[in-house]
Amino acid sequence: MTTDPRSPAAGLPGARCPGCSVAVYPADDTCPRCGGPAERAALDGAGTLWTWTVQRYAPKSPPYEPPPGGFQPFAVGYVELDAGVRVAAVLDVGDLGAIRIGMPLTVTAGDGVPRARPTTSAAPHTTTAAKEGS
Residue 55 gets which letter from DSSP? Predict the structure, then answer.
């Protein structure tokens, strides 16, 4: 049985440098830090919200075409994965007022922009920056 590439179990299609251990998303053949070759790796989508904003106005038309139900405000943000990578994603949350920096999220990839949903696990996540400062 093949894992759906959009499921959290598949991970994010990133890369990791065997020389300096830097992880990147999306995958790249070259390490951005040392310039060496990077190897494809499935990155765990678990992380915390680094920053965010709410898009409250519909883009100008054309090329934007409103969906059948009309434009609905949505949140986008950067999620810092436990691997240290910050991934831009649409935040799939029920209440835009409940979004907080540091909230645990799980990022999944699929067609288009990655999506982040609140993590159902009660275990808190710490960012790489917080780990390095300890």
Answer: E
